[in-house]
Specification:
Helix content is about 35%, strand content about 20%. The chain has 27 helices and 27 strands. A hairpin with a 4-residue loop joins strand 11 and strand 12. The two termini are about 60 Å apart.
Amino acid sequence: SVLLVSIDGLAPRHITPANTPSLTSLARRGASCFQARTVMPSVTLPAHASMVRSAPPDVHGILDNTPTPPLGPPSILSVARAAGRSTSVFQSWLPLDALWEPDALSFRLTRDEGYDQAVDATIVDAAIARVDSAPPGEVMFVYLSYPDPAGHDHGWDSEQYLAAAAQADRDLGHLVNALPADWSVVVTTDHGGHGRRHGTDCNDDMETFVVARGPRITRCAGWATASILDIAPTVADLADISPDSGWVGHSLIGHETPRVDELMALLAATEAKSYGERVNMLDHVLQSAAVARQRGASDDLVLAALLHDVGHVFGVAGDWGLPGHADVGARCLQALLPPSVVEPIRLHVDAKRYRVAVDSAYHAHLSLASQMSLQEQGGPFSPAEVKTFNANPYADDAVMLREFDDDGKVDGLEIPALETYRPLLAKALLGQPVVDGAWARHACRCAECRDAGNDQHLLRADELIGWQVTDDRAGPPREVDLVHDNGERHTAMISVEPQSQAHRTVWDHRHGAVLRAGVSSATGDLTTFARQLAEFGIAIATDVATKPGEILRFARRIGFVRNTNYGMLFDVVAEPDPINLAYTPVGLPLHTDNPYRRPCPTVQLLHCLSSAAEGGASQFADGFRAAEVLRAQRPDDFAVLTNTMVDFRFHDATVDLRARRPIIHLDADGVVSAVSINNRSMEAPTLSTVQSTQFYRAYASFAEVLASPESVIELTLKAGELVGFDNRRILHGRGAFAVTAHRHLQGCYVDMDAVRSLALGRN
């Protein structure tokens, strides 16, 4: 059985996962083309005649919206009836009756009550009722009208039009979710539109789309080109019916290419393209993606860096590139990838214009080609444009992407190969995965499933079994309709972004100025301090009284204080007979504390009671950033440090503490979650000669990255200042100071979960 749906006037440029989730989800589960073409005139009745008869208007004879009997080859439904299939149509515009031969229909419902979105919903309900009773092999046509009148009344780019498109998408989702698994479905449109009209040969009018899903269609695939004339042959092919010999179009089935292969081939072809930079286009985007990954950007922003210049490929680039390539690239990708990938791409040229306007030194940082293209792209933003840009929810990501773009133009730089990014791209193209019914019920956050006071689950394990998903709508919140084996129904309300997932930002040597600029006063609320500590792994507070023990009062405003063998509180001063090298005036290399403990203390607070006049500056480095640099530049060394277990030990007359862990720890998703490095307490690992050679090479490589000037910031704490840092992420050390210098710090530990709780506004 095959369902053909036509959504009148749905322009592909407005098909996105956010606005049309049902259609884009269908595309991920099947094949699609969002650069298909209609016929001239790009008008409803002629275009539909070409759609169902695979013939141009000069053959079928319908040249406007006047209903006249068409000429030429038969309709797809007539061909299906001749093959012994049952057929049906559900439409809300009477002139469409002219398309169908008298003997072509087994069932027909036409409601012509003016353009009303409620009529489309009625049409869908009637079609669903037919699906439940239709004989095997049914070929069904459903027409949804509402986007077209919204375009005529308000414009094809208006908010009202977007709302109409979203409603049509909801109707489509309701219909498709009612189909049995063995049905194939084809969704298309007759034309686009511009302003408040259509019918011309401009691209906005002529561009259409085709989306198809079925047992024989490759998942998450695409067609490079398609025509409205291909619809009838494609439906016939899916229905296993021979096409009419008079049809001029061709079936699309079997000609689709996996989207990941398509985009990878597109990127690979850019190796031969130059656009005024010292590197070719492929090297540039690979460098940009590598920079993004090194700086701890999200997977979506890494993909944005990889794909940000793909718009150059879709037009003729001049000496300095294609001026409108950001919009071109975003438009080609927006139906395939989430807005967190697409919107920074759309804005990355605007981000350059923004930065030139707000940062007088930025222009000199640009490459010559980027400086030359600036004027073609509109020049620096005006104050009004700066304000508009700042209001965009993707502005910050676009500025970050701009930095990756600017820093990805180094001649001869060694970078990961293009194929490295295939799994990441494939995952993004597949989009939101189909969920399990038990998982959806478990993830539901409604009052029936969670306690309103503490948000804890109310359902037992056995109550999660037996649920099937009937519909899945993007959020926020994501809504998943469920039905139980006993007939009970439930709509699971699922948070798209769990609050507990704190954002983290990696940093390099430039963060010192940012850190100093963001100090918090200990006399006020500590939420900002906690947020900086949760995001960057380090934060500074000032105005802490310079009395011994004051740090404990500060720490208890965050959470419980962790007791260790050093006590609840420890002093860092020069001692005559120290139990730890920290209690001497010698310099200390970058390290993490207490890696020999299980669990390892997380947040360390250091309060300066008095500082040395010379020397003794505290040094810090972001271990997460350093690990990502190592992963990108020396992946073999990175693998060794994540897979080799190392023993750490501390012992004296009273304690013997030991723990085994890798130097770089990854979570289940491969994300760096902890760094443990301390040359004073690390034991020599028990390894073969070959393994030892590999390990110590990797260990030295990581130490080199950590100690590089690019990684380290120096802070000279003043009396009354306090620094907090994540001991599983941030490495710390200090410079040597004179024995006669008076330097006194006090420290203690609190748990990171208390910091994250405070960062979320809870204490």
